[in-house]
Amino acid sequence: MGKQISVLLIIFCLFLVGCNKKEDTKEKTDIEIFEQIQIFDCPKNTTYTEVSGEEFTTEYYCLDENSKKIGPFQKYSDETGSIITVGEFLKDKPFGKWAQWDKNGNLLVIGMFNENSEADGFAAMWEPDGTYAVMYFENGKIPDNIFIFNAKGKLDKIFITNIETNITRSQLDKDFILKIEEETKEDLAKILDGLPKP
């Protein structure tokens, strides 16, 4: 299981790196910029931008006077029309709540970024079987504990990152289990609130 958690952390870190990837639309000749119906409002003194062509997706975001991304960001599949990624930029870097779905509309990852574009606060990643891992980041620091839940939302185990060890449900105090399950349920409800439907 330690290897699975390590893979989950790697996937989440790759998601974080992907969100920080800078797009240079000037170098990509196959990308076209269109101005059509806006799907959201941009902050004052910014320009609504739609970029199509890469990987059969379309991205929508706002650019400031220095061509830096700021405000809402959404990425859609051109094949299905469903949302793939939603988030927000601050000074051309991810900020606030970000979420990513697979092509079938299943939520893959959700997390929060601070003003320095570091993972900060609640984050969760889902497996195809419905199991999921929950982490609480602090200013980009890898969390000490990763809580692994089954598809029904019951705590299955806790992965201790610094010693790469699992503590199974049977090794945990029942009151502690109930507390973690209730807190996670509340935190999930808060972070999922307001997300668009894929």
Describe this entry's structure for a reader.
This protein is an alpha+beta fold. The chain is built from two helices and twelve strands; from the N terminus they run αββββββββββββα. Strands 1-2-3-4-5-6-7-8-9-10-11-12 form a twelve-stranded antiparallel sheet, with helices on both faces. A hairpin with a 4-residue loop joins β11 (155-160) and β12. The protein is elongated. Mean pLDDT is 86; it is low at 23-36.
List its traits.
single chain, 198 residues, twelve-stranded antiparallel sheet, 12 strands, 19% helix
Largest pleated sheet? 12 strands, antiparallel
Gyration radius over CA: 18 Å
Helix content: 10-25%
Listing every helix as H and every strand as E from the N terminus to the C terminus, the arrangement reads HEEEEEEEEEEEEH
* General form: elongated
Number of strands: 12
Number of helices: 2
Strand content: 35-45%
Return the structural class: alpha+beta
Give average pLDDT, whole number: 86
If strands are numbered along the chain, what order do they take across the biggest sheet? 1-2-3-4-5-6-7-8-9-10-11-12
Distance between the termini: 30 Å
Unreliable stretches (pLDDT < 50, length at least 5) are: 23-36
